[in-house]
Amino acid sequence: MGKWIGLYVIAFLALTGADMASTHWATAAGQGQEFNAVVATEDGALHTDRFLLVNGLFLAFSVAMLAWAFPRRAKIDPRYIERPSRALFNYFYLNPFSKKIAPKSVFHFLALAPAVLLMKAFAAFNNSLIAAGAPDIVTPLAKAVFGLGASELLTYWTVIIVIFHPIWYLALVATARLLRGTPAAATPQPAAV
Fold first, then answer.
1. CB–CB of 84/175 below 8 Å?
2. Which of 113, 155, 161, 171 could pair covalently with 146 via S-S, beta carbons 3.0-4.6 A apart?
3. Range of 54's domain?
4. Residue 192 has pLDDT above 60, yes or no
5. More confident of the two residues 37 and 13
6. CA 45/CA 47 separation, integer angstroms
7. What whole-number distance in Å separates Cα of residue 67 and Cα of residue 64?
8. pLDDT of residue 34
9. 190 domain-assigned
10. In a domain, 191, yes or no
């Protein structure tokens, strides 16, 4: 477990650095601005201290949940491993630790790690396209949503939801495939005597 969490932390830090560097590159080139109001300055630049704080807090949360979920992977409902799409939209619950919810929340929190890494890679790639003056993926989507009269906040969250779900699906599928190959994901068998 420690090896997987260590690899996740290293990848998270590297991709956070890539996201930050590509955002600074795009804003310095005059090609774009930070889209997330929580980590943006008033003039649309990246507020680095806030960016690092938000990412540090999220890293701590995601590592804690990964550490909680990994040893409980045998509790995952096998239907989620057989058909990960079942877990695509049922991630709203109040207590992920309850016995009733754990068969899906454990799967969700294992899949959260690759989903976060894929989202960060996507953000860095999209920022790099903007910085290079190339057509990117997010800008046309954001302009379309904003053009419908949505507020900046609603536009941001709409774009995040649209981008997140295909990435979330890929993370669920990848997690299910990994779990199919690990004995701990299968139903525990009685010990031989």
1. yes
2. 155
3. 2-185
4. no
5. 13
6. 6
7. 5
8. 87
9. no
10. no
Contacts of 174 (CB under 8 A, 6+ apart): 111, 114
> Residue 114 CA to chain centroid, in angstroms?
7
Residue 193 inside a domain? The answer is no
- pLDDT for the residue numbered 184: 55
Residues 6+ away with beta carbon under 8 Å from 181 = none
Measured torsion, CA atoms of residues 151, 169, 116, 163, in degrees rounded to the nearest 10:
-30
Nearest-angstrom CA–CA distance, 139 and 124: 14
> What total number of domains does the chain contain?
1
Distance (Å, whole) CA 77 – CA 101: 10
Residue 189 has pLDDT above 50, yes or no: no
Distances (CA, A) of 23 to 16, 17, 29, 34, 125: 11, 10, 10, 7, 10
Give the Cβ contact number of residue 176 at 10 Å. 22
